[in-house]
UniProtKB/TrEMBL annotation:
Keywords, ordered alphabetically: Acetylation, Amino-acid biosynthesis, NAD, Oxidoreductase, Phosphoprotein, Serine biosynthesis
Domain named D-isomer specific 2-hydroxyacid dehydrogenase catalytic: residues: 9-317
Entry-linked NCBIfam families: PGDH
Biological process terms in GO annotation: L-serine biosynthetic process
Name of the protein in its database record: D-3-phosphoglycerate dehydrogenase
Catalytic activity: (2R)-3-phosphoglycerate + NAD(+) = 3-phosphooxypyruvate + NADH + H(+)
Provenance organism: Regulus satrapa
Superkingdom in the source lineage: Eukaryota
EC annotation from Swiss-Prot or TrEMBL: 1.1.1.95
Name of the coding gene: Phgdh
Amino acid sequence: RALGKLQKVLISESLDPCCREILQAGGLRVQEKPGLSKEELLREIRDCDGLIVRSATKVTAEVLEAAERLQVVGRAGTGVDNVDVEAATRKGVLVMNTPTGNSLSAAELTCGMILCLARQIPQAAASMKEGKWDRKKYMGMELNGKTLAVLGLGRIGREVATRMQAFGMKTIGYDPIITPDVSATFGVEQLPLEQIWPRCDFITVHTPLLPSTTGLLNDSTFAKCRRGVQVVNCARGGIVDEGALLRALQSGQCGGAALDVFTQEPPKDRDLVNHPNVISCPHLGASTREAQSRCGKEIAMQIVDMATGKGLTGVVNGQALSKAFAPQTKPWITLARALGTMLCMAGKQVQGSVQVCTLGTSLKEAGNYLTPAVAMGMLAGGTQKEVTLVNATLLAQEAGLKVTTTHNDVAPEPDSSTGLVQVSLQGTPHQVTGTVQGSTPVLRQINGATFQQPAPLSGPLLIYRAKASDTSALATLTGLLSKAGGQLLFYHSSSTVAGEQWSIVGLSAPLSNLSELKPRVTEVFQLHL
């Protein structure tokens, strides 16, 4: 199955109409069916190549299993915790998101929440509707001079920080990936978490929900905070431990909380929502016309680009595939796959350690997409599952195949400028080397024997090793071909190693029976690339 043969896309949630329009203009058939039950989704997804969701549709392993033709799940938004990414990867289904689309909306809501906490605006508004005039009850605080801790300094965290700096807040923060130098450029002083807790008046979280961020605020971290600390969570339910938050609110250790997200949505347990010092929204972070229009537009454009082979962006689980769409890398991926298949045929095994070595400066970064391509070639013959660049590395590990990669800036002549890829099966003499000429992958070397005229690696090929002095193999082969009504398209022979030569032959169609050829050669195999 070639990636990019997308025909039908299901949109399972209500999205901006521009999403459907862009997909249709890109030549795709679109079905919009918001609010499907699980059973209906399982039925509808069977014949779809693409699925577009927001956060409500749960794309479980069961849904992915039912989706026989599915190639891509597009999330109009950032978090993909409603998609079983591992099950998608295993099945070779791409998952993509639109990480920038709703950043500003989420950041603005967070800033609004901080202001509401400082001045209890929602509570005061509600009391007015009840006919009260409680001027004494709602004594607030100024934000100017207060310290805001921003945990997670990605797109949303930094937008919140710069906006709250305009209110005169001091912004400190923490992020495991973004360096202190970078965060200093947008005015956030990075500190270890242990130093953050006792310093801040407000805490806002902007991390994904991961095992490492679940319960980031808990009983022990609340205990280290200033009494009366104010907490905002507009990211994901569960980053702030809900039980610990309720206990901290009840004891006064936490002075107020603003929640847009919950562990369970909608929350069945209403204790937090009903607490007088909690303000909450029904997950409205991305609910602006602008964000919905942006996310709908971005995900539609990403899927059209994928369908038309223009490129891949926003990919969560198939970084190797993003490279496969670039015209200059396509032939190298084809080459790596062909070398993997040849190695598997020559070595007659799929287990063990395979070393991929890239030679030449132009291939410096290539290992990360050539490794899954080699794994894909090695697995192509044996597995029942469909092997793609998305799941090749995972399936290789499960098959007992370890693919590692090394790089050397120097490639030997005549390939010093274009580069070479060398694939070896460790502990065996099996090694194949190839390069790309123009846009054609070619074979340079097999098990130490060099082809002066590099042999093209495409179409049906027959490769054999025989005594250099014995030309009967070629005569037998031409006889077999004429009997089968086939043609010999090209023939290349290698240098002689230990009195033997390798030959690679391009055929118009694979031969069904090689029994006449086998007695005349040391080894022979066919492959279709």
